[in-house]
Amino acid sequence: MPDISAPNLAARPLAGRYALVTGATRGIGQATALALAEAGAHVIAIGRTSGALEELDDAIVQLGSTATLVPLDLKDSPAIDRLGGAIYERFGRLDIFIGNAGVLGPMTPLAQVEPKEWDDALAVNLTANWRLVRSLDPLLRVSTAGRAVLISSGAAHKARAFWGTYAITKAGLEMLARTWANEVANISNLRVNVLNPGPTRTRMRAKAFPGEDPDTLPAPEDIAAAIVGLCLPDFDETGKLYDFPSRTLKAFPVPA
User: Fold this and answer.
1) Which of 76, 100, 175, 188 gives 23 a disulfide partner, CB atoms 3.0 to 4.6 angstroms apart?
2) What is the DSSP letter of 251?
3) What share of the chain is helix, strand, coil (3-state, %, to 5)?
4) What CA–CA distance (Å, rounded) separates 117 from 178?
């Protein structure tokens, strides 16, 4: 198995490939978009803010690559449904899908979560990714080496008090990925995996742990390097969880 924690980006192993990244304007998503571009991919960047997307585009051009900017709120389900058709008309296929966008949601007892807060977290963390699977699956199957990586969290395997909304949506996301991986494993070149970044120096982490020193945490760029490794054409594993803190690729834990 190739070393997915530190791929040789200078060799541009993703040249000529098309990679879609959600939540591409900050944090892990931004770092991943830049790492994919550095590896040679054309990046289809999804984000809510046009200005931030344009700044990302400037950075990608400086790396010698190109991007397509898609201002999109992932709660806009009809727009996600149209996305696949638009990509097909322009590029004819998709090689890489990074499902990174997510929200923390309310940090409160489940009995006190407001319905709108629940619905918003479910819409972004889980439903949007299901919609993206529906929209992008045919395009990824056309690729000679389609790769999908969905970004989860260690919270998906814990029942920590007050984290219920986030943890439940991430647990659902992992099951979505595992099911999708099994459905396509024997009928296409598409490989679907999940990455748990662990504690990372992001805005979301700072919101959840306001007293934590961010300098003690890995940077988003460290996570991005591992994500690129999961997207390489010669990475053939599927239906697995890459746990970044331990740098291991493993089968999903089975509940006791």
Assistant:
1) 100
2) P
3) 45, 15, 40
4) 26
How far apart are alpha carbons 238 and 148 in whole angstroms? 9
Helix/strand/coil for 95 = coil
User: Which residues face 183 on adjacent strands?
Assistant: none
Distance CA(66)–CA(43), nearest Å, equals 7
Token duo for residue 9: 């980006």
Task: Say if CB 18 and CB 45 are below 8 A apart.
Answer: no
User: 12-250, which class in CATH?
Assistant: alpha beta
Nearest Cα neighbor of 226 from 6, 2, 17 is: 6
The span from the CA of 76 to the CA of 159, in Å, is 30
Contacts of 172 (CB under 8 A, 6+ apart): 125, 126
- With 70 as the cut, is the pLDDT of residue 109 above it? yes
Cβ neighbours of residue 16 under 8 Å, at least 6 residues apart? 40
**C-beta of residue 51 within 8 angstroms of C-beta of residue 26:** no
Residue 214: φ, ψ to 5° = -65, -25
pLDDT, one tens digit per residue, over 59-78 is 999 999 999 999 999 999 99
Neighbours of 219 (CB within 10 A): 14
Tokens of 31: 């770092």
- Give the residue numbers annotated as catalytic, written as ranges: 166
| Element housing 192 (H / E) | strand 191-196
